[in-house]
Design brief:
This protein is an alpha+beta fold. Helices cover 19% and strands 38% of the residues.
């Protein structure tokens, strides 16, 4: 073997050894370890497998003949089943955190403990915008997992993921935190994901992302994959968000999301230069609702918000996420630029109304628009109250002042009906009333 080949082989061995040693921390809870088994034994009993069943109507026969269906014994309904994961966070009361999409529309929920005991569960509350749900079981012989501070998580921290991938049962994988503050994954909700390369597969949804102190730092929620399997890019809802949503559900029976009360536009370097503003990014306040938290805090139209609670704000989506992930009544510190001077105020957030909604909460193609149930007496529909210039909603032809009266040939009377239809379809055909005429807009 030549000297050059020997050196390359030795280099490869050293690289492999470095990767192997990097795969495990040197200590857990201050003690040297060569295995994650002690940690897994401690936390795994708090993770449950979830089985969900749902009854759905059977589609009519190809011939549309009820007699044909009855002759061949085609049932009117059928039961479908799915699997997911959950984390016991309050053993005394039997509360379990999981994903909204795991238990959505469930008729029956069964959870399995690590000892294979099965329990019936009920949904206490759920929030589609953050993909967090709280379910409850009989609090007997349960083990819970302490909720850690996800704000203290750093890129490079070792983590383990525990869940029920592909319905196999309790499965443990390990990795590191790959990135923080990820957005733009679902675009229909409020996002601030922890990204990890710990293997997450279908069925892991709702499971635990755990730090080396045995604390819950995230609820596994989504993956990026072309095949549906793990490719090393998984996302978890931070524990701080999950805890806030759970607290609101348990305290109020619903999620009371914070509201600043502003209409905003993204500021980039080009638009900042046009305004003569000494910023490279931010969110420009273009409108303030009377009596809102923003008005009471002293914000004005033309202010450029650049930070919320020391977190940099680069665009309108980041501001929306920062505010929407907080509860009503919470205090937020807002840093903004006015007349070239950086200022700070503290705002006490109001509460979002169920009769108002942002486009990203409804459909990706409606991003940049704000909607409200029609305020015109005797008129059903959904008003388009604001449309951000050059946004997806603007590019598809929506204008402020439009009223949506039907979607995919189904009449809509309020925001709830618009949201239900939009979230079930990738392509939307909006019948819009604009002044004294109607027009049809296609949204993808």
């Amino acid at each position: 073997m030549s000297t050059k080949i020997k050196l390359l082989w030795a280099s490869a061995l050293l690289s492999a050894a470095a990767v192997a040693f990097a795969a495990l921390p040197e200590q857990v809870a201050g003690q040297p370890v060569t295995s994650l088994a002690p940690l897994v034994k401690k936390v795994a009993p708090a993770v449950v497998n979830i089985r969900v069943s749902q009854t759905v109507s059977t589609r009519s026969s190809p011939f549309g003949d009820e007699t044909f269906r009855r002759f061949f014994g085609v049932p009117d309904e059928r039961e479908i089943a799915s699997a997911g994961s959950g984390v016991i966070v309050d053993a005394e009361n039997g509360y379990i955190l999981t994903n909204h999409h795991v238990v959505e529309n469930a008729d029956r929920i069964m959870i399995s403990l690590i000892n294979e005991d099965s329990l019936d569960a009920e949904v206490i509350g759920s929030d589609a915008a953050t993909d967090i749900a709280v379910i409850k079981v009989d609090p007997t012989n349960l083990t819970d997992l302490p909720i850690g501070e996800s704000d203290d998580v750093e890129v490079g921290d070792f983590v383990i993921a525990i869940g029920n991938p592909f319905g196999l049962g309790h499965t443990v994988t390990s990795g590191i935190v790959s990135a923080l503050g990820r957005t733009g994954i679902s675009r229909n909700g409020y996002e601030d994901f922890i990204q990890t390369d710990a293997s997450i597969n279908p069925g892991n949804s709702g499971g635990a992302l755990v730090n080396m102190n045995g604390e819950l730092v995230g609820i596994n929620s989504a993956i990026i994959s072309r095949t549906g399997g793990n490719v090393g890019i998984g996302f978890a809802v931070p524990s701080e968000i999950a805890r806030s949503i759970m607290r609101q559900i348990l305290d109020f029976g619903e999620v009371r999301r914070g509201l600043l009360g502003v209409t905003i536009t993204t500021i980039d370097e080009e638009s900042a230069k046009a305004l003569g503003a000494q910023v490279d990014s931010g969110a420009l306040v273009s409108n303030i609702e009377p009596g809102s938290a923003a008005e009471q805090a002293g914000l004005l139209v033309d202010d450029i918000i650049v930070r919320v609670d020391d977190k940099k704000i680069d665009n309108s989506l980041e501001l929306r996420n920062s505010i929407g992930l907080k509860g009503s009544g919470e205090e937020v510190n807002i840093e903004f630029v006015r007349d070239g001077e950086t200022r700070k105020v503290t705002a006490i957030l109001g509460q979002q109304s169920a009769s108002r909604s942002g486009g990203t909460e409804i459909h990706p193609g409606l991003e940049g628009a704000q909607f409200a149930s029609s305020s015109t007496s005797g008129t059903d529909g959904v008003d388009v109250t604001e449309v951000e210039p050059d946004s997806p909603a603007a590019q598809r032809g929506l204008r402020a002042g439009d009223t949506i009266i039907a979607v995919n040939r189904r009449a809509v009377s309020d925001l709830g009906e618009l949201r239900n239809i939009a979230q079930a379809n990738r392509i939307l055909f909006l019948l819009v009333q604009r002044g004294d005429r109607q027009l049809m807009l296609q949204i993808r």
